[in-house]
Structure prediction request, 270 residues.
Amino acid sequence: MAGNEIRRSMPLFPIGIVMQLTELTARQIRYYEEHKLISPARTEGNRRMFSLNDIDRLLEIKDLIDRGINMAGIKEVFAVKENQTATAEMEKQAEKARRELSDDELRKILRSELQHAGRFNRSSLRQGDMSRFFQ
Amino acid sequence: MAGNEIRRSMPLFPIGIVMQLTELTARQIRYYEEHKLISPARTEGNRRMFSLNDIDRLLEIKDLIDRGINMAGIKEVFAVKENQTATAEMEKQAEKARRELSDDELRKILRSELQHAGRFNRSSLRQGDMSRFFQ
DNA sequence: TTTTTCATGTCAGAAAACCTAACATAAGTT
DNA sequence: AACTTATGTTAGGTTTTCTGACATGAAAAA
Prediction:
């Protein structure tokens, strides 16, 4: 899952290829960078190198431009998206925390059942819930 | 399935990037081209542009070189592989033909059953086999 | 309506990246 | 020893990209 993100953020493409891929002019691409909508990497010799993520972003910019939205608007759209994915991350974290909390509870139940049910092989009704603790 | 192959054969990378990705020198890459092991595209201005397939091939060349195989050997390896995938294609085609032949047979059976079983809604035992003819 | 602003076009001069061709060389082959 | 192979190195030329400056049409503001 993370390897893919690395690949997508690897600076691989010179501006000429990006122009073809996005059908934007060099002037436009540089202008969007000037307005901090993208931040392509640079070679030692100062040439811009773009990643797949940069290209996605440029295509998004192009779409927003086509819909009549100006630089400020696009900047805001990206800020909101950023914030949105950030909160989604937090929600995921919270969900994970909730799950881990109930894992603890399940552990308690498991211990208690093992003490009571003792030596029965027949498993308790909660086996399905417990299974994730094993293997 | 074919869209992926298009993407993999799209000339996107200048030689500088390919050098980094493959850890080959420009001299080596040009030499391998000279020996027809790769055939990168060219820009209008005659710059080489490499596809993902080209890069795969270069990595393969590098591996074979590391194993002490010379240009002629590598050329032969690729020829064999080419031939191999070609026969695989033919096998696939043959398999498809076999399948289509039995499709014809199934059609015959279908016709015959429709004539005999006539107006029964209850479907014949072969319905599962027939289903691929509809929708 | 006139003036500003915005997004982009265009041009110039400089630097980076790449090209081909030629010669050099270490290691392996004849 | 002479040749071949794979690669290094250098030179001179062309293409691509860079920044900065000025130009412009359309939209927004005054």
